[in-house]
Known about the structure:
By secondary structure, the chain is mainly alpha-helical. It has helices spanning 2-26, 38-71.
Amino acid sequence: MECFNDLKNSIGELFTNSLKSCCESNHIFCEASSNLSGGAIAGIVIGSVVGGLLIIGLIIFIVMKSKSKKNQPKKLETDSQVEMK
């Protein structure tokens, strides 16, 4: 686990250093904070959760519908359809 943490830290440092050098060399203003407000982030999260639940619900509905078609008994002739001989 220690090896993983060292690797994670070195990758993070590499990314941070390359981002700083990119910003400095291109005179780009780098901002660490997000431009999204808390309400916008909450809306994205809630929308994603609702969308995910809708997709899961649709999949369950389709699976249940296909299973119910397979489990239906075959249509048998009723008394009115059978001729008496």
